[in-house]
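Notes continue from the previous slide.

Worked example: a multi-chain complex. Inputs as given:
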Amino acid sequence: MTGAAAAANYAAKRPGARETVSTRRDPVTGLHRFANPGRFLRLADAVQPWTTAAAVLLIGAGLAGGLLLSPPDYQQGDAVRIMYVHVPSAWMAMGIYLAMALASAAGLIWRHALAHVAAAAAAPIGACFTVVCLATGMLWGKPIWGAWWVWDARLTSVLVLMFLYLGFMALAKAFDTTSRGDRAAALLAVAGAVNLPVIKYSVDWWNTLHQPSSITLTSAPSIHVSMLVPLLATAAGAACLFLSLLAVRVRAELLARRLRTLRLAEAHGEPGRG
Amino acid sequence: MIRFSALVGRELRLVWRQPGEAATAVLFFILAVILFPLGIGPEPALLARLAAGLLWVAALLAALLSLDRLFREDHEDGSLELLLLSPVAPELVVGAKSVAHWLTTGLPLIGAAPLIGALLDFDPTGGAALAAAMVLGTPTISLIGAMGAAMTLGARTSGVLLSLLVLPLLIPVLIFGAGAVQAALAGAAPRQPLLFLAALLAAAAVIAPWAAGVAVRQAMD
């Protein structure tokens, strides 16, 4: 706010600057407004009940539709139903990494502490989705491919994604000062983002055992609508679940950091300022 | 460019005055490879099949061993801070350190590779492909490793953490490095894996010094 005031003050001193004042965008409008932890938490509190309810409904309906109502695959039989968990968690694993990398970049560029908090809060959720994706993939691979694991490009690159999540979490906690860990981990998240296109296009670039995607944004999906609808429902539910968990984790992380600051202040013998 | 070569020269002089430390990586490389015939049995046919992969894994681990030191000593005695205060860009400083690391680790490893190959009964028809793959692959190890070393600078458990960060990022180098040799041994042209290695090197040469430069500056704050 002081930045905006200073800018307005500066603009007012220049002759004929009234227009500049009125058309100038306040630097704290736009998405930067939500870099304020208090404002973010109020928004998160307002949104969280809705995302939680939507997650329960969508995942419930999607799983009911996928596991009970949809037909078995003509080749894979009932094993195809693993898809309703596997594909959404794979999408989330990549989507959360992208969100984490973007938040990390925002934290590095604009030095918003909240962006680092959000990235740190998102990492374990993304790692869990990656584990679910790998585990369901292995369960599916045993009956269909005849092996728990094959070393093809898609599987290997998702395994690398898993290690990037783990490395991010380990690096963020490896330093005595929170801010140094935040920024080192943010750098890793941004540099590791090169893995995302590799995962996405691994099935196209290499002749992999993993099948190419059936659903793309640019063409009609190649799976039947009775399978597509439950799949999209669970995917949307997984996204809502992520938002709910993220809100909880960001709140917890902010409280933990405030507690840490208070304890440090107390240890230094100063009156704690909340 | 003069500053860059002066920086590389400084690193090389530092290593030259402590020749034991540079030799450690090569000795580790040879020892690690020697362990495999003892562990899996000395059948020449089996060893010849595994040789390319073993060479690459051992080279990766040997290069990691010396990475932990890359910035730490300069960080502890304050010379890293002086280097960053100098008019040289931080990207250039870490680039010079990566080049020096390759000259003192990657190049000796390439030199030791024929000896190791002989111990493992490596088929010489794959020799040219292995040499080309190592020439293209080991600089990528140094570049990405320097990035990891800069990120973990000042961390409590930097050594273990460094391996956790760097090894997953180096998996492509291993895949295409071993793939080039396998292709040559199978009688095919190793062109495609070698081009992938070159692409990885080009990408790492752009991304890694930038990220390492930012990380080193952060470590100074």
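Summary box: Chain B touches chain A at residues 147, 151-152, 154-158, 161, 164-165, 167-169, 171, 175, 203, 207-208, 211, 214-215, 218-219, 221 (CB under 8 Å). Chain B is about 85% helix and 0% strand.
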